[in-house]
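Our collaborator T.R. sent over the components below with a one-line note: 'Predict the complex.' Nothing else. No constraints on interfaces, no templates requested, no preferences about which chain binds where. So this is a plain run: every listed entity goes in together, and whatever single assembly comes back becomes the starting point for the next discussion.
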Amino acid sequence: MSIVLLAYFDLDGSAIVKIDSELLLARPPFEKRHIIKVDETTLGMAILRFGFFSTEKLFPDWEALIEFLQAQVAEAHKASGLDLSKVDVSQDIIDLAPPEILDRYLDRIERELIPTRRFDHAEAVLMAMIKSDNPDLIPKPRLSRVTQLIQALSEARKSDPVKALQSMADESRFPNLTKHGGLAKARKIEIGIKNRKSIFDHAA
Amino acid sequence: MNLFKIAQENAASLESQLKLIMDQSAPDTKLCLEAFQNWFLDKAGISINMKAAVLSIFMVTGKHQNIHEWAVEQAELSGRTRQDILREKLGGYYDRRQAFDYAFDDGEGFRYGAFNAGGVGLSLFGDFCIVLSRTFMEALDDAACLPDDSLECCFNKLRQFDEDLVRRKACPHTHRHYLAAIKHAAVVPQTTKEQWGGVILADGNYIEAIFTAKILPDHIAQVRVKQDKYDELFNLAFDDFGRKLHEAETAQVLHFVQILKETRKRSISLEVLP
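Returned assembly:
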């Protein structure tokens, strides 16, 4: 099977390809559900209206194609002075998330991350919530839930047979913070929160 | 050839066409078409679908480029000619683009939108749909409408640009509700008012707005996005806390964050639609 790349958009990696006689639109993150059949008119519209680059490159498989598209995205951003490998907007997402998204994130921490021992992932989200100035994190029910999940995470880490060994030192309970030297900063924030009678008061 | 003048000259013909339809319609159909015209004038704004990256860059830099403006910039950066750059980018579609844009005075300055009364527009390629403010729309001096995509409806079966088709189809902005009623005269009486938004704009079927005024972020009245895309972007952002995202994923999250920031900063409503 060979894949003919007919059009691509360099800023996001979207592509229209031809496999046998079928035209497919593939969009990042390139999972099956992001690949749909399209027709010639759609191909024309992508190029004429939506800034796709016309091309006719051949690829032996999806892996090679996706590698090329990822490189195009990185290159297009680099040309505007932006190194995507250094981009970190995780704190921004928490700061900007509306209440229903914050609740969904907390649900996922409780139902997916802690039960499957993805502790670092859970911790990173919760720490971003603590540091955030998002006003939707202030209401008591949501704030209480954040602190309850921090406690649940801490308990889960302690009781996890593998992780328990790494948790002997207090600092290692939050490896992401320790690694990046942010523990002191987090403690400072904790004191600040205590003083404004918020998050850790609820946990007490 | 001036597209806007051609459109203006076609106003009387559009009025006659609609009068003929009305004269041949039953009284309730006539009433329905009149209501549809009023609804169109009241609710339909000009929308443009954009990819997250394009909208993010537009909102951050304040710069919205059409393909010719982009080519001019690339030519300045690379030293290549603008035509070479366009030919390379458009490939086999170069002739069609040039045939339309170069047929008209200031065709290289044209901007294209679609009339929209509530949905996310042509979202297949542009997940984010911006709706331009009514103030901006009403202040447009040079604006014309066509009943479909200009790069389809102004070309004959041999894919050649056809000036006669333009002269028959172009409509001045002031008569956009006439064009909408003529185009949808058969469907409107069979649909409810709630369905009219879907009648005037569905993927591949829309009324095109062409204008030359530059657009700025302040002209955006609303940004719309489908719920599933909005959720997907927030889910990707959640994943970002636990694993290293690939370049294309990082870019998506980055541009989404910029859109969230800019809409908030500029008090532009971000509407998430089912």
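Summary for T.R.: The first strand of chain A starts at residue 3 and ends at 8.
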